[in-house]
Amino acid sequence: MNRSVLDIAQKLLRKHKFAKAITLLEGRSDVYEDNFDYYLTLGIACLYVGDAGSAASYFQKARTIKLTDTRLLLGQAAIYLRRGDTDRAVRYYLDIQDNDPNNKTAAGAMDFIRTRGDYGTICRWVDSGKIKKFYPPLGSNPAIVKGTFFFFCTAVLACILILRSVQGKKNISSGLRADLASVTLNIDEKKHAQQTDLSGSVYRYLLTASQITASYDKALAYFQEYRDNAAQVELNRIAGSNAAFAIRQKARLFMSYLKEPTFDTLTDNYTYKEVSSDIPLYLDCYVSWTGRISNVDTTENSFRCDLLVGYEEMQRVEGVVPLRFTVVPTPPIDGEKPVRILAKVNMEDGKLILEGKAVYQSVNGSLEVKK
User: Fold this and answer.
1) pTM for the full model?
2) Contacts (Cβ under 8 Å, ≥6 apart) of 163
3) Which residue, of 15, 121, 190, 269, has the greatest Cβ tally within 10 A?
4) CA–CA distance, 272 with 77 (Å, rounded to integer)
5) What is the pLDDT of residue 329?
6) What distance in Å separates the CA atoms of residue 130 and residue 57, rounded to the nearest whole number?
7) The pLDDT value given to residue 143
8) Using an 8 Å Cβ cutoff, are 321 and 303 in contact?
9) In the 8-state DSSP scheme, what is residue 281?
């Protein structure tokens, strides 16, 4: 029996093939005019690819047809949650709980907002994709269901292979990423962690001896966990503090061990609000920020522009930051589309600037980097 285009699109959603579902449905707008399921399906697909503007438009059309559908309310609540408008998101979640008291997605979102719903955490969840756990559920993925049996049959073999590699993984987690003997604090340095003579010097961070050693220990631990951004923050704190000269020198040497990340390997992605509030603390950290560009200045060997942070949906600018690439991006950044950049934090004349390292810009406007 022939299936309708809407049925096919809904199956594509369950397979997480959102772009295909959008393309299929957008070509049938005349056929499905005033069809609630059509607008809802399109809105959910757009939400999952990161096109919150189109999702909001389709959800609003669906709302004119039916007001109390749980999946629709979840979608609209998710859009407000992404923007950090938690008050409005909560209203939608309360409406859901009135109609569906046992809805786990709404309950989880309410708990998230209550315990961790600050704007910085929301931005990090949007960047990492974790926010999708509060999107309308898609149902079981047929491809995953089919693969479950195969996975079960191969689990024993996989376990054997994993067990053989456990020792190697233990070595990594035990601190063998690199030999840090040359930058580890000795007993005497820990005992005399503070600079004894503070006259004639200005320190950005005044720390106690225990705070200095604790911060240094954190940097060591973060490094072994491949959290180089977090290690950089601790080392910056020490380098700008009243720590003893020998400790500050070791902190600067330690910085040379840190590696440049990619979009996929970046951890501890700090927000614009965090970085701009204390630029020296985040110097040489890497950030993955979204937005749009303006004021482009291109030469043969460089590319400069302003990054309008958070302006990817053209609703709110968190900040304007100069962005420069010493190697011109290929292909060049399209100023008409949203962009995600990977950049290193720097400072000139006391102001924040970004040294661009990589660019991601998709044809459909999604800022979710394909892995």
Assistant:
1) 0.53
2) none
3) 269
4) 24
5) 80
6) 23
7) 53
8) no
9) G
User: Rounded CA gap, 2 and 223, in Å?
Assistant: 57
Which amino acid, one-letter code, is at 321? V
The residue whose two tokens read 């580890």 is 184
Q: Which position has the token pair 């070509």? A: 27
Eight-state DSSP code of residue 15 = T
**Which of 25, 30, 65, 27 minimizes the C-alpha distance to 45?**
25
**Is the preceding omega at residue 331 within 30 degrees of 0, hence cis?**
yes
- Say whether 108 sits in a helix, a strand or coil: helix
Distance between CA atoms of residues 24 and 335, nearest Å: 27
Q: What's the token pair of residue 155? A: 């689990």
3-state secondary structure of 294: strand
Regions in the chain scoring below 70 on pLDDT:
1-2, 140-176, 331, 363-371
Q: Which residue has the tokens 């950090």?
A: 84
Place of tokens 């990423």: 177
Structural tokens at position 68:
């109390």
CB-CB neighbours of 156 under 10 Å: 8
What does the CA dihedral 305, 307, 312, 316 come to, rounded to 10 degrees? -130
- For residues 47 and 75, the answer to whether their CB atoms sit within 8 Å is yes
pLDDT at residue 197, as a whole number: 82
Residues 6+ apart with CB under 8 A from 335: 292, 293, 294, 296, 305
Q: What does the block give as tokens for 130?
A: 């974790």
Q: CB-based burial of residue 55 (10 Å sphere; 0-12 exposed, 13-18 middle, 19+ buried)?
A: buried
**Selection from 150, 182, 136, 116 nearest residue 37 by Cα:** 136
Rounded to 10 deg, the angle between the 104-116 and 70-83 helix axes is 20
State residue 141's pLDDT score: 67
Task: Tell me phi and psi for residue 341, to 5 degrees.
Answer: -120, 150
Helix (H, G, I), strand (E, B) or coil at 124: helix
Contact 45, 25 (CB under 8 A): yes
Given this model, what pLDDT does residue 90 score? 92
Give CA torsion, residues 227, 229, 235, 240, to 10 deg: -160
Identify the DSSP state of 314: S
**Cβ-Cβ contacts under 8 Å for 298 (sequence gap 6 or more):** 304, 328, 332
CA dihedral of residues 77, 80, 84, 86 (deg, nearest 10): -50
Which stretches within the chain are classed as H helix? Answer: 5-14, 18-26, 36-48, 52-63, 70-83, 86-99, 104-116, 119-128, 142-173, 187-191, 209-224, 228-239, 245-255, 272-277
What CA–CA distance (Å, rounded) separates 98 from 228?
Answer: 45
